Input
Amino acid sequence: MTLTKAELADGLQQKVGMSKLAAKDMVDDVFEAIRTSLEEGKAVKLSSFGNFELRNKKARPGRNPKTGEPKVIKARRVVTFKAGQKLKAELQEKASKQKKEDADT
Output
């Protein structure tokens, strides 16, 4: 299951009662602000959720998985996400409840 931007906009529209177009624009604006900040080299910290950061990865040796041929993987910048403690705790709690329910059945 995957959550899409359209589903985020639908949820926002239902919860807040704004128009579908306004909800879609708001979701787009949030993601654009995140993208712009990362592009400028700024970290994005979302309280109780987590942090997005831009990291530089060095060039390194790799291998073509189809042919096994050695290849150099170029240096690049990547976006990383680290979940915050509150999000981790909530996910762990939910997983524990699910595991208990599965064991009871």
